[in-house]
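Exercise 3.2. Students should predict the tertiary structure of the chain below and write it as structure tokens, then compare their answer with the key that follows.

Predict this chain's 3D structure.
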Amino acid sequence: CMVVHARYPVGETRVEREARALLEQGYEVDVVCLRDQGETAADVINGVRVHRLPVRRHRNRGLLWQFWEYFSFFVLALVKLNALDRRSRYGTIQVHNPPDFLVFAAALPKLRGARVILDLHDLLPEFYAARSGRSLQSAPVRFVRWLERVACGYADHVITVTELWRQTLIGRGLPPEKVSVMMNVADPSIFHRGGCPASVTRVERRFCIIYHGNLTLRYGLDILLRAGARLRNRIPDVHLLIHGSGPLLSALRNEVRTLGIEENATFSTRKLLTSELPSLIALADVGVVPYRQDVFTDGVLPTKVMEYVALGLPVIAARTSAMRMYFDEDMIMFFPPGDDEALAECLWTLYADPTRRERLARCSGAFLSRYCWTAQSRAYLDVLTHLLSPGER
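Answer key:
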């Protein structure tokens, strides 16, 4: 059973892919998740039994509202898991953060013998520190770190998304053998080179730069817009394609008007299925990930980078610790985080040198060879194999 404070399957691609990997190995899989308006309380989706709880996600309503939403989901999940486990007797329960304390919703099944996995999508001490502007040594952040430590100690095993974050958890006292990595690499059945639909064509020839994902301040979309404004006289056909939604959307539209680049920028806000993203990305010449650097983003390896790389799109990205751990200068063009002038120069370089774009795309294939989904899913399944006794596999 998987427990996630998100919708399924549209809310968390990671959960969907893990469920699919389990089904392919003969496991039965339940998912306990949020219920949005118009959705049924129970469903079966591609073989996964989905149990939706009457809690909806409300973004950008402040920390107190978010805590109440997390706590409501925790209480309902605690009751639901107990009922489901009394009927099914789960071998493992995998709880996805945030929040970290959601792992305790598995308390009663754990008492009956179920193994509990905590899947840390984000390190919440760093996330909260960056969001609140507090130091990692501040009292509120130390409390969040204590919650993380207790949750990790309670779980039988912990999974996270990068080696950098694994080392961070080990540095906080988690035994190395208790934590493993499963990266959010691009799904090869959807994102693969030469796989973009033949129907994708440009109505007009232009140098198209794409970003897709959440629109928040830490992800640096204003930096990208300023870089685009610097280029409009040097590259008359430059165009910024920004796909996604988030709290910064209105401010970004105002920034476009202020910079006078209405003809050079397009916002795409229609919610797309993951399978539809390659058709959108195929419109671009370069993918950009302009993250600001803080204690949280420094350890994030953006899934969008891996999707661009999987499709053979050259990438320009902010030089953060996680990015440098997995990519080098031959694979991705880096710029100093927050420097729109440096980003503009990187874009100009790739515009003027198509051969450089092709070389970046080609060399980034080394990442795909080393960190493929086959290897990631095998490592994930190995975790479950070692947790379960022979009679439960």
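Discussion points: Confidence is low (pLDDT under 50) at residues 197-203. The longest strand covers residues 48-53.
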